[in-house]
Design brief:
This protein has helices at 2-19, 44-62, 125-128, 152-155, 244-250, 310-316, 410-416; strands spanning 104-106, 122-123, 137-143, 146-151, 160-165, 168-175, 180-185, 187-188, 191-192, 195-202, 205-210, 216-218, 223-226, 235-237, 240-243, 255-257, 294-299, 305-309, 318-323, 326-333, 353-358, 360-361, 364-365, 368-371, 374-377, 383-384, 390-392, 401-402, 406-409, 421-422. With 426 residues, it is an alpha+beta fold.
């Protein structure tokens, strides 16, 4: 009964996230941080009502009864692998896959029940300042001088944005259950794809689908996992989660994604509270860290995976490191609120922002240290911000080359990368 209740609560939270239609309201740009509250208690009767509504929507869409059965995708009567009632109208080729179908769960909403943003609109800072607080987290993306901010307060309700930035077709993605914000090039070969939210999860992570072949794609890895494009890999693009204030300082001509149906509030209140069991995750938790501990993660082509605990970074601010043949430096700065803590994101706890960079600039390998509130290099004393830009000193105006990384919850990274090196532990 306890397991069923947890699954019911999870489905209700996913429903709230995809159906909320709160009008954007102005918020102060400097709101003090507060500790993230514990997960709100949801009355069982209310949860059951929410789940019934989800199931009724599915029944109407499919024209057939729907039954909750261990929260696994609905299979046909003859139990053929990959043939799901909830996906009976899809043209996905279920005969091709590289994952175990038993690992796929329904997240609650049907396909496109969480609507992607396919025709995004953007606005300048003067307008965005009216509804976006300085502390709020955004996905920062800069391609060919085109800098854009995707607020997580918007992405929690949409999870995918199909966009073109600096002439490159991209998808900006965010899975709240894994705290995974990742940007991909949405081209495969000579074809550009549009992506949507399938309504399915694996290891608690969103499974995307492309609207051309309806193949399924794992958001965490960018890999096609079911259908015609199984085994195809999307290209990761360098991005990072930073505060809106940091974005404005680094990119004076940047643009901000306009909200479609509400922002500033968090439908996953208290989800990142330490000790919480992740929703819709049936895997084994790696005990090296708390399940929802934040980690900065990197994967290299030779199969080397590394995770840096944010708790360590928050203490030292800078880590100069070498993994395999790769020199790198990891930055952490305060001032960015959690998107998954307080009900009002601007009031959430400060989890900081991270950046990972190649420390070699103009043929010189730099080493970095924290001095008070600043990050400086020991060679010239130049001052650097979280985006890898020198703001003062000999290197003023220059930028370090970003190393592709992501900030995840530990449980999700360990599930997909179980052999990961964990910095600070032998």
């Amino acid at each position: 009964m306890r397991t069923l209740l947890i699954l019911l609560i999870a489905a209700a939270l996913m429903l709230v996230a995809c159906t909320a239609a709160i009008e954007p309201t102005a918020v102060p740009t400097d709101v003090p941080a507060t500790e993230a509250p514990a997960v709100a208690v949801v009355e069982e009767a209310e949860v059951e009502k929410e789940v019934e509504e989800v199931e009724e929507a599915k029944q109407e869409e499919m024209g057939k009864p729907a039954v909750i059965a261990d929260n696994t995708p609905y299979k046909t009567d003859d139990e053929r692998p990959g043939r799901f009632h909830m996906a009976s109208s899809w043209k996905t080729d279920w005969s091709i896959n590289n994952i175990d179908y038993d690992d796929i769960l329904s997240g609650g909403p049907p396909r496109d029940g969480i609507p992607s943003i396919d025709d995004p609109a953007f606005e300048g800072y003067e307008s965005a300042d009216q509804w976006l607080a300085n502390r709020e987290p955004i996905i920062a993306l800069d391609l060919n001088g085109d800098a854009r901010a995707y607020p997580l307060g918007v992405l929690t309700r949409h999870e995918i944005v199909n966009d073109t930035v600096g002439g490159i077709p991209i998808i900006a993605t965010f899975c709240p259950l894994c705290n995974s914000a990742i940007v991909f090039d949405r081209r495969v070969g000579d074809e550009t794809f549009e992506f949507g939210v399938s309504g399915l999860l694996r290891n608690s992570d969103m499974i995307m689908y492309d609207r051309t072949t309806e193949s399924l794609w794992q958001q965490f890895t960018g890999e096609g996992v079911v259908g015609e494009l199984t085994g195809t890999q999307l290209t990761f693009l360098p991005s990072q989660i930073i505060s809106y204030a940091d974005f404005k300082a680094a990119y004076p001509d940047g643009k901000v994604l306009s909200p479609v149906r509400g922002t500033g509030t968090n439908p996953y209140t208290g989800y990142d509270t330490p000790g919480n069991r992740p929703f819709l995750f049936n895997g084994k938790l790696d005990p090296r860290l708390d399940a929802v501990a934040r980690v900065v993660t990197l994967s290299f082509d030779e199969g080397l995976d590394v995770a840096y605990p944010v708790d360590i970074l928050a203490e030292v601010r800078v880590i100069n490191d070498r993994q395999g043949t790769h020199d790198l430096v990891v930055f952490w700065t305060p001032g960015t609120a959690s998107a998954l803590g307080a009900s009002q994101i601007a009031q959430a706890a400060d989890v900081g922002a991270t950046g990972v960079y190649d420390p070699i600039l103009d043929g010189q390998k730099l080493t970095f240290v924290a001095q008070g509130d600043q990050i400086v290099d020991e060679q010239t004393g130049s001052v650097w911000d979280i985006t890898g830009r020198a703001t003062a000193g000999d290197f003023a105006g220059q930028r370090l080359t970003p190393v592709i990384h992501a900030d995840h919850f530990w449980f999700s990274w360990a599930a997909f990368r179980p052999d990961t090196i964990l910095y600070g532990q032998e």
